Amino acid sequence: MNNCSVTICGFGALFKGVHFTDTEIWPMSGSAYERIRGEDFYRSDGPDPWLIDPNSSWYQIWWTVTVAAAFLTAFIEPLMLSFKSYPGLYPYDDAAAFAEYFLLAIFAADIVINFYLPVVERRRMKLITDLKLIRKKYCRKMFRVDLVGLVPWDLVAMALFEVESKDNKTASVLALLKWFKLVRCYRIFALFQFHEQHNKVVSQLMITLARNITPIYVQYIFSLYFSITTFATVGFGDFRPVSVVEVGFVICFMMFNVMSSAYIIGTITLLVVRSDERTREYRERMLAVNEYKLQHNIPKSLFESMTEHVELFFRCQEHSDERVLASLPSTIRRRTLRHLYLPQIQHCYLFKGAKQKLIDAILAAGRVELYMPQVEVVSEGDHVNDLYILLQGGIELLNPRLTSTLMTSSSSASEDLLLGETGASKHGGRRMLLLPGDCFSEVSFFTQIPNLEAARTLDVCRVMLVSRAAYDSISKDFLLGGQQVLTNLLNRCMERERLEVRIPRDDTQDGYYRHQQAVVDLARVRCIVMQHSQHVSESRVFEFLSAASRGDEGMMRRMLEQGHEINACDYDNRSALMLSCAKGHTSCVRALLESGADCKLRDSSGSCALMEACKSSNASIITDLLRHGAKLNMEAATLAGHLCRAVHDGDMRFLYRMIHAGANMAACDYDMRSALHVAAAEGNLAAVKMLVGDGNAPISVLDRFGNSPLDEARRVGAQTVVDFLESCVTELEQNQSLAKFIRQRTTDLLQACACGDVIRVRSLLERHVPPDCADYDNRTGMMLAAVKGHLEVVQELLRWGGDPAAKDNFGTTAKSEAVKYGWTEIVQLLQREEELKSMVA
Prior knowledge:
Blueprint: E1 5-7, H1 30-37, H2 57-83, H3 95-114, E2 119-121, E3 126-128, H4 131-140, H5 142-150, H6 153-160, H7 168-174, H8 186-198, H9 204-212, H10 218-231, H11 244-296, H12 300-317, H13 321-325, H14 330-347, H15 356-365, E4 367-371, E5 376-378, E6 386-392, E7 395-398, E8 431-434, E9 439-440, H16 442-447, E10 454-457, E11 461-467, H17 468-477, H18 479-502, H19 509-550, H20 553-561, H21 576-583, H22 586-594, H23 609-615, H24 619-627, H25 636-649, H26 652-660, H27 675-682, H28 685-693, H29 709-716, H30 719-726, H31 731-755, H32 758-766, H33 781-788, H34 791-799, H35 814-821, H36 824-840
Antiparallel strand pairs: 1-3, 2-3, 4-11, 5-10, 6-9, 6-11, 7-8, 7-10
Helix pairs in contact: 2-3, 2-8, 3-5, 11-12, 14-15, 17-18, 18-19, 19-21, 21-22, 21-23, 22-24, 23-24, 25-27, 26-28, 27-28, 27-29, 29-30, 29-31, 31-32, 31-33, 32-34, 33-34, 33-35, 34-36, 35-36
């Protein structure tokens, strides 16, 4: 901060005569000046004792005297030039000479006073109290004006040219230099300007009349009238043309006068009207604020703040960025914003490492607002919807939660000091000074939690505000930049936490409490920022995957150009390529493959992009994936599950796409059953031919139960499949399969008979299983059914031609087994069957 300047804290009701600088001067009230003098934030030694207080009563009287002297100059100088016998101060002994000397002394003294008078600048809104800077600014502009109005240039010229009083003609010409003294009248315009803007007692009509009507001596009025009418060739008409040439000259001269007069009158009218309109608008606003105060009984302090902000807004709205740059092309507007605010934005830690395009977008989206001193921009607990970046001035951050009795006690008063820019506090101090380029309330803005600290202005501050909607739009357009901003925020939180932990704490109980409280708060902020950063990252991944799922190729390309991770996955490890393949978006798949998407990734269920393409029935996507080296790199059991399900459902197209995608047809499930086993068991000849012919599926592979596809076909009685598979194997394999089939069907029939499963028995017999097939002891199914007493099974076997007289290796028959176990009905049935066969024989 500059030690030679302090800020204007208000604008008041009386003009205090501070002189002009490079920019317009603002009058200020006594209370405002007292607030400046009492502000020791920037100055430790107080103001210079040689400074003149504009609020003092003697200076108010002096300024009134200078304004009266300016009025007197405006009246005397034209009068003396027009009606004195000899121009100048000659003969130096009359009343006019005394007036000249008197005015000369007043304005000379005023020049000396201006070297010690504080300077108020409108552009920076600073009250400059450094004497060197005051004199430098005064000499650069207004000193020259005052010097021109002070020196009697007519007397100097007469002395240089040695003109005596008798030389009336030359002296009259040199006397015109008296007009330079009229520059003193700028004080009159300053007086009228102040009353137009601040004096609400006198009406604007009276001010306008007083400004435009000035009493002048009667002879002076008549002389001015005579000169103007003669010049315009109206009125007295002293110029009379005689010849044609003179008539033409007078015509041209009159036309020139008419056009010049019209231009001058129009220009003056425009300037006066525009000035009056602006003054009227300002007065109406101030009167409205005054009426509002009276209606709602606004306190005096609050009313002063309201009027100060209204005046600040009124004076700055014409020069605001939005109004000035709105009509300019985007390139010029961007260059202007860079010139004005780029250093401050680049200094902000949030945008460290960000690209220039992101910073330009922030500059274009932000709006600049002005805040008066001692104004709380944001309070603790507020929900912040704007990102605040300080561009000019100073702001103090306060943490009200630490202002307990412990914090304000005398033992810890030394800790309640301004802190450095790093943000770390000494034993948990609660104040921090922000300089141009710093941001505040950024944690609340990004995480959407209540604000943790209050921000109060120390002087007139210029702050850039970026709304949440604008920043969200920018972060979507610049993904890498938005992620970098969050990373910088997280790093700053971690840095402040580490710095706070390393600071040696006070040994007192109060110091220990404040230190621990600060560490806990910073740790909590860090956790919140980390959670928010992770949430934002997941949201952007979701947007990218959603674009891939719905086929929004343009959105995908924009996000990829902005640096989004192309292989980002969701909670199921599904990538954008998998989703595009599953939905059949060919253009999106090609865009992802061209951008380098990994086509070999697998999700949590074991699926891959090529499998999703096979499911979506899109041959072109499968071809594109295979061209980029994609494979069905899935677990064998998972792949076998898809193949077996396709065969079971009869989905021949999906089976063909899987074969075209290079699926391993030898893949087996948990029972070691391949797709060919299922096809043979289902009797699906087309699937068997496709698996064997196109997929080169192995025919001799055995499952967990030792069965081959040929065995499965024989078991279900699919003779066409059996014939096809037998044509693909050797004769030895055929015989082995047949023998296995016979053993298997015998075992199945005997088990069904023993269990009394008449339906199973009937099914086997219908598939040409011999009813008298026996085990290794030559025990038939009828014997086993007779032992268990299964009458229906015995009847079914007899119906299919079973022999009731068959004997096992021990000479036992079915009838003897029934007699042995007391199954009378079975005995009678078998006896009748034997008698019937003997009669037939």
